[in-house]
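Section 5: illustrative case.
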């Protein structure tokens, strides 16, 4: 293949119509646009057949508070643990909406906001994202955005979306489509999470670009290794930049987890040198295969490495990391192939 062929494939990775890079965001009150709320934003990418890879370290983070809760869930998991004064506070901040059997946040006083967070921690109510997902308080979705109001320029595909899963964002001149996903399995030690698109027609899934997986453990001599991540100044655009495998580490770090107990992130990692935007966790590292003229995903961006570019010897406000830690997909090959099948 020629350099022109490779350049064409590079540009495809950053074009909104051909890029396999997306974001997963957790949505509360999705079907009520005036109450809809987006949180827990993370990079993710499609590996085909509706399977999505990202990181796992955002899953057990505590949201601390929620925008709404079913009244039955409130009565069974929160109400019994409150005294009369605490019940009065909660019910003033989450009044019951008749006809819906649902309580919506109506917190105008900053002190009440903090008091509610403290109260939920005091009664040990679990607000980790995995739990909010299980309670259907917050549901993960792929966020897919285009300049025009058609899903991959296809009117037939666009008809599968409705006012709760499609909306225009004039302030950024984009049209946003929401595609629901479910967590299939989280590989916490390797810091990788596998999702699958659900409640979506197959023709919509088939239209979404994807990356083949390269399970090779690569050496530090790669000339065609890149990171595909959000653009440097926003999460709307995409950036493909050269990355260099700088070495290897037998990684070990402790993830602090208050409710379920701490767990370890450990195992083989690439030490990678390059440009890394703050918030690039979940981004794919891709390697160019000249024989097939394809970019294939080889690793997942996990953590910024403590070795970083410092400004005035200060870490705060410094978002340009020059080293990162990435998990080779070889580490989860057998686990992943149980779901997606073996590579041909």
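Designed sequence:
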């Amino acid at each position: 293949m020629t350099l022109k062929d490779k350049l064409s494939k590079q540009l495809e990775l950053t074009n909104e119509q051909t890029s396999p890079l997306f974001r997963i965001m957790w949505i509360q009150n999705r079907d009520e646009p005036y109450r809809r709320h987006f949180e827990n934003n993370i990079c993710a990418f499609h590996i085909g057949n509706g399977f999505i890879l990202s990181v796992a370290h955002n899953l057990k983070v505590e949201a601390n508070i929620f925008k709404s809760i079913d009244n039955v869930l409130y009565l069974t998991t929160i109400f019994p643990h409150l005294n009369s004064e605490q019940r009065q506070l909660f019910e003033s901040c989450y009044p019951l909406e008749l006809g819906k059997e649902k309580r919506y946040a109506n917190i105008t006083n900053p002190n009440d906001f903090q008091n509610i967070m403290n109260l939920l921690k005091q009664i040990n109510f679990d607000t980790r994202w995995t739990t909010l997902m299980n309670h259907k308080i917050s549901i993960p979705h792929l966020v897919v955005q285009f300049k025009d109001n058609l899903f991959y320029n296809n009117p037939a595909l666009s008809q599968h979306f409705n006012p709760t899963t499609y909306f225009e964002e004039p302030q950024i001149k984009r049209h946003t489509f929401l595609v629901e996903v479910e967590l299939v399995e989280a590989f916490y030690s390797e810091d990788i999470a596998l999702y699958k698109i659900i409640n979506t027609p197959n023709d919509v899934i088939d239209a979404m670009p994807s990356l083949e997986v390269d399970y090779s453990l690569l050496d530090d001599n790669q000339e065609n290794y890149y990171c595909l991540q959000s653009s440097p100044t926003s999460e709307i655009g995409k950036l493909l930049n050269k990355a260099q495998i700088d070495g290897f580490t037998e990684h070990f770090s402790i993830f602090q987890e208050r409710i379920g107990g701490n767990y370890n992130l450990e195992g083989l990692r690439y030490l990678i040198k390059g440009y890394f935007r703050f918030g690039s966790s979940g981004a794919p590292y891709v390697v160019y295969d000249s024989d097939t003229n394809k970019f294939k995903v080889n690793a997942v961006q996990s953590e910024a490495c403590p070795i970083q570019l410092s400004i005035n010897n200060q870490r705060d406000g410094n978002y340009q990391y020059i080293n990162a830690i990435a998990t080779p997909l070889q580490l989860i090959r057998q686990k992943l192939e149980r779901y997606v099948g073996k590579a041909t």
